[in-house]
Amino acid sequence: MSDTDHLQSKLQSEIASRFASDLSTPPLRWGPWLYYGWVDEGKQYPVLCRRLASLNEEFISHKSPSAGFDFTSGKRIELKLLDHHQEAERFGGYAYEELSEVSPNHRYLAYTVYDKDNDYFKLSVRELNFGSLCNKP
């Protein structure tokens, strides 16, 4: 198919130009929170986030500030629950999430990530108020 290389390249460029630069899922309301995910331009893995539904209009997307409040715009910053890029760093460059679940009290996030070096899924539990991993899930 070497004679179609130019056409393949042109088609790939055309398709790529029609995709949104940052993809996101629609927010899903559960209790007082809106849960959703997004993928940054040029990134491979999604980021799972949440924001309070009652204060939805006061939030901006989590881009560069680490947490809390953006003093430039005067808005709150969404809470980043799970960044799969950070998980990929923990597992040698590859992070495939099979399952994730938020606890009924919205305090914990349990999720599994595939550890390719050891060929198994690892269960992790993150305390959402502080963002820290629990020692023993």
From TrEMBL:
<dbReference type="GO" id="GO:0004252">
    <property type="term" value="F:serine-type endopeptidase activity"/>
</dbReference>
<dbReference type="Pfam" id="PF02897">
    <property type="entry name" value="Peptidase_S9_N"/>
</dbReference>
<comment type="similarity">
    <text>Belongs to the peptidase S9A family.</text>
</comment>
<dbReference type="InterPro" id="IPR023302">
    <property type="entry name" value="Pept_S9A_N"/>
</dbReference>
<dbReference type="InterPro" id="IPR051543">
    <property type="entry name" value="Serine_Peptidase_S9A"/>
</dbReference>
<feature type="domain" description="Peptidase S9A N-terminal">
    <location>
        <begin position="2"/>
        <end position="129"/>
    </location>
</feature>
<protein>
    <submittedName>
        <fullName>Prolyl oligopeptidase family protein</fullName>
    </submittedName>
</protein>
